[in-house]
Description:
Elements: E1 7-10, H1 15-31, E2 35-41, H2 51-59, E3 68-75, H3 79-90, E4 94-98, H4 113-120, E5 124-128, E6 143-149, H5 156-168, E7 171-177, H6 189-216, E8 222-227, H7 231-241, E9 246-250, H8 258-273, E10 278-281, H9 289-293, E11 304-305, E12 309-310
Helix pairs in contact: 3-4, 7-8
Amino acid sequence: MLHARPLLVPTDFTAGADQALSQGLQWARRLHLPLHLVHVASPALPPSYDPHRHLLDQLALHDLEGVTVRPVILRRHGVAKALIHHAVRTGAELVVMNVRGQKWVTPSVPWSHSASVFRQAPCGMLATRESNPSLLRDGRLGQMLVLLHAQHEDLSLLHRALYLARLYRADLHVLMHAPRTGRSLRSAPFARNRGVERQARMEAQVRRARTLLHAERLTTPSYLDVTSGDIADDALALAEERHIDLVVARKHESLLDTVLHAETLAAERMIRLAPCPVLVLDPVHESLGFAYSRPRHFSRPATRIEMPLRN
């Protein structure tokens, strides 16, 4: 039997955390994943404080049908550190987290909880806000936007987006970044040749993405747009224009490569400014990758709430 990696939903019992739990239950139910509702309690709190009761009260407000839910209480100093440690220990598939405001990665609060989890957790992250509407309407996700970079030969993010589009019956919009090489005719011959080769590789990657979209034969419409400007700016404009319900982007642990770093920064900007939830996947740890490439040997779980896990 294949072990299903859990989906983590941190909570501080606020309205935003409650909205993130609602989103997490929708994803856990559709992807057949167990859900850990995690609360980090400071060890300095008196022993009489029992967050387990608050966790059960919060779960009582939601429909838990078809989802295995485990309340988890972590008594540690440092919320982000405790969440990252739990994600590593359980091999989490995804963290569904509420993001408050637009200053979560600004210099004023450089290591806020959500930013630290985004950068350091070895899994994907679904960032949502209290103001975001429900992602699914009648089991369908309306419009999904995927950010790709033509400088990568890896199209795994597009494969996962196609899986989600098929699963949620979503209209798929793909925005691919293909920057101009910047080599002029007056450049040195070797530099000019490298620029031409790089441009040719990016054009070939755009053709591969277009061919893949046509080959999948989705039952819903799919669109491919190519931009040479700032992909985050163009994606924000596209999200407003086409009323996007979910943005899918990619993050990378290594910030030494310029292209990989640009992808991570674009994902951060989308989380801060996008008018909808943002799903950020980690290609190294195969966030949601098993759903596309691995066989399913586990059955749909029955509804149950397990005993709290205390660390």
